[in-house]
Amino acid sequence: EDVTKITIEFNGFTLRPADAKGIDYIPESSKVVLDLKAGTENFIYTANKTAVSSNNNVELCGTGKLVIQTGNNGFSCSNFTTTGGKPIVELETTKDAIKAKQISITHGEFKFTNGETAIKAELNSKGAKGTLAIGGEAKVSVTGTKVALSGATSITVSDTAVIDIKTVENAVVTPAYTCAETASVKVDNVNYVHAA
């Protein structure tokens, strides 16, 4: 299957007003790359629409900053991956901040505030995937969500990844959880691991 790659460069980008539809005009056969340019701050505000929506893959790279505030989901796609650089991403959502069938975060810093689930890997229509992997030098901070990390199949934390979870109802929801000794997962006064 041929997949078209669409690259969107964020170079001091702001999407307003609050009733904007977000970035969702992405063809089903396309992979979208979001490149946060160095030294820039970028903003997406939506009231009730998903900020970034794709039926295929979303890749995030670069060294800039992206702030998302939405009354819906932050990212909703098939696969979500970070592919390079050290992007800084702050998400404050009402629903799920990152929701995909397969998620791999190995670069950058992610800060999640409020909402249902910070990072959610769910099964597809065939009952496959649902895997969440956090590794490399990624840093993840979660505060005030109902669930911090959710993987329908598995969650793996590896390399020197750092995860800090505070004031959520459930920290990790998955049937299979693995954390390397080199990684750091700190959980403050919440339930740690629950079977999905």
Structure description:
The protein is mainly β and 196 residues long. It has strands at residues 4-10, 14-15, 30-36, 41-46, 52-53, 57-62, 65-70, 75-76, 79-85, 88-93, 98-100, 102-105, 109-113, 117-121, 131-134, 139-143, 147-151, 154-157, 162-166, 170-173, 177-179, 184-188, 191-194. Helix content is 0%, strand content 55%. It is globular, with a radius of gyration of 16 Å. The mean pLDDT is 90.
- What oligomerization state is this entry in? single chain
How is the main sheet built? Answer: 8 strands, parallel
Low-confidence stretches: none
* Global mean pLDDT: 90
Individual helix count? 0
Task: Give a short summary of the structure.
The protein has 196 residues and is mainly β. The chain is built from no helices and 23 strands.
Descriptive tags:
globular, 196 residues, mainly beta, eight-stranded parallel beta sheet
Blueprint of the fold:
Elements (H helix, E strand, L loop, with lengths): L3 E7 L3 E2 L14 E7 L4 E6 L5 E2 L3 E6 L2 E6 L4 E2 L2 E7 L2 E6 L4 E3 L1 E4 L3 E5 L3 E5 L9 E4 L4 E5 L3 E5 L2 E4 L4 E5 L3 E4 L3 E3 L4 E5 L2 E4 L2
Parallel strand pairs: 1-3, 2-4, 3-6, 4-7, 5-8, 6-9, 7-10, 8-11, 9-12, 10-13, 11-14, 12-15, 13-16, 14-17, 15-18, 16-19, 17-20, 18-21, 19-22, 20-23
